[in-house]
Write a structure and sequence with these properties.
Layout lengths: L1 H20 L5 H9 L3 H13 L8 H13 L3 H13 L7 H12 L4 H10 L10 H13 L3 H13 L7 H13 L3 H13 L7 H13 L3 H13 L7 H13 L3 H13 L7 H13 L3 H12 L3 H18 L4
Amino acid sequence: MRFLALITMLLAWLPLHAMATELPRTYRDVASAARQGDAAAQLELAIRHAHGSGGARKDETVAAEWFRKAGEQGLTEAAYQLARRLEDGIGVHRDLDQAAAWYRRAADTDHHDAQAALGALLLRRDGAHYDPAQAAQWLHKAADAGVVQAQVMLGRLHERGEGVPQDARAAQGLFLAAAEQGDAAGRTQLAQMLRRGNGIDKNTIEGMKWLQAAAQQGYAPALFHLAEAHFNGVDAPLDVTQAMHLMTRAADAGHPPALLALGRFYRDGQSVPRDPVRALTYITLASQLGSNDATEDMKQLAANLAPKLVAEAHKQAKQWRALRGIQS
């Protein structure tokens, strides 16, 4: 009996011992190990400062410094995290050259998110790195590993024939792979391909199913395309009320084509009462968020309004951005 009691006590003690040995290290312990050159501790310290957790104050500058130290010791995740910050200017000065270099270090060791991010960087037209052929190579690696963002980006390249041979069926397959993983962008791209039938078998019923699924996820481009379908009565019942609801949701999410469409509706009094100030507000936002088509509309509309109305529209646009944390 004593033996059985001893065994019972031992079995009860083991989980507690395991829990004690797995307790998270204190901030002081992690920081001490990091300063002594422990790469894993440097990465952990960087993550704590990035999130303001584990006893660390939130400080992206400090986080970037520790990501760099860990990355220099060969930790792939640290290299990837530093690259993201260099690309976006978070905690460090924005530097696309350095971002590309650090993404490449991580991508070379089969960090699939880094491969996708490097591919995306190589598709940016605001720097000297634009190289769709090289981008496609990295995206292919990430897409094969199941990274949905890479599948969608590579699908778009195949659809346009940019950096890769134009291949609608390859694009469809990549969009489908992303869509089946629940990716709203992949679902929207697949839906539009099926609705148009360019290079693949047209299937509007299937296309609308995918589009509605993406819209239910709140994905702004899907909301926009579904709104257009209801406005025009194409592939969906003609329903102006539902169309306006969907278009407004897409615009509220900052989708430039939806902002421009709403601006034109209010400018022309189409489906809504004419309101030149609201029209200029939406069109200005569309222009500021990247719609080239909106810029000329904005200039023409502003030229025909009283200065105080133009000022009011600009004020409302600024408030709209501030409410959503969007800088001009």
